[in-house]
Amino acid sequence: MPGNVSSGADSNIYALCPACNALPENNMDKFCRQCGYQFTIACRNCREKIRPYDRFCPSCGAHRLVIFDQIKRYLHVHSSQAALALAIILGTAWLALRYALRNKLR
Q: Which residues does the UniProt record annotate as the domain DZANK-type (predicted)?
């Protein structure tokens, strides 16, 4: 089925890149040739290769927090928008703090 990851602990075959939807040229690619997305990562507990969206390691059963990988993927794909949003948030926070403390600093 297109877009799905095949089953198996050692399998890293993707029909489409999860980040940019590009079709990998080679099924054994470790990174997407279009956006650089890493198709396999190492388990933090046993260092075995696992797929990025597995919630548990198939080798040792260690639980993974997938949210960090999703944030990393979002920032990788939308880096310019994320930088602009961060600049707006920090600028607004600085202005609010300056406004709140303006009388206390005099």
A: 17-61
Residue range 31-40, pLDDT digits in tens: 888 888 888 8
31 bridge partner residues: 38
Q: Which two tokens stand for residue 66?
A: 């997938």
Question: What distance, in Å, lies between the first and last C-alpha atoms of the chain?
Answer: 66
Q: pTM of the full predicted structure?
A: 0.43
Asked if the model's pLDDT at residue 13 lies above 60, the reply is no
* Alpha carbon distance 49, 39 (integer Å): 10
The residues, any chain, with a CB within 8 Å of residue 79's CB and separated by 6 or more, are none
Domain ranges of the chain: 1-64, 65-106
